[in-house]
Each structure stands twice: as structure tokens, then as C-alpha cells.
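Below is the record:
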Amino acid sequence: MNLGAFSVSLNVKNINASVSFYEKLGFKVFYGNVDENWVIMKNGDCVIGLFQGMFEDNILTFNPGWDNNAKEVNPFIDVRELQKELKKQGIEFKTEVDENGEGPGYFVIQDPDGNTILFDQHR
């Protein structure tokens, strides 16, 4: 099952301090806006999102339909199909996507240790 591009979304206390820190590790701002308190940073194939004040926990994020450069890939498994498949496997959902919709959408699950996993489709 191809889940899409993977990244870690971090809840940060100070977006500027976090950007500066990750730049020292070789990451560069790829997308987003520090003034809006969020950026996506890359170092090679590694992708992290830094988000100040947008959510409580750190999140594992999958983006169906995208590669690690935020470019569309085809074919891809729509987030609604992923949700249906995971439901068949007995996964419980914190948030569900409308299975009758189309286009952008997301759902949220948690692993057995309570780690949040976001499936966020932008197309």
C-alpha cells in the first residue's frame, strides 16, 4: 500500500529558533511561511514540517498523491480508498474523511502508543 510522501510534523515553541536549528543540520526551507508560523524543510529526501501553535503533538504525516518534492504522482491511492482499506483491517480513526467526497481530504489515526498519524491529501 503506497501511502504517499512521508514527513514528520513537529509542534515547535519558537518557529524562528527551530528553523535556525534545523538549518544548522543542513535543512533548507522548502515551502511555507515563517510569518504564518509554519514551514516545510528538506535535507535530501528527509522532510520535516515545523508548526508553531497549530497542534499539540508531533505528527507522522503521509501525503497521498505527492512525492517528497510536493510534485504530483500518478497513479496514487486516494485518501478515501486508504481509509476504507484501513477500516477493513480494524484500524480505529480519530478523524475520518468523507468517503463520498473527492479531491483534498484527510483522516487521522493513532498507533498503539498514541502517536498521531495524519493522512493529508492536497489534490
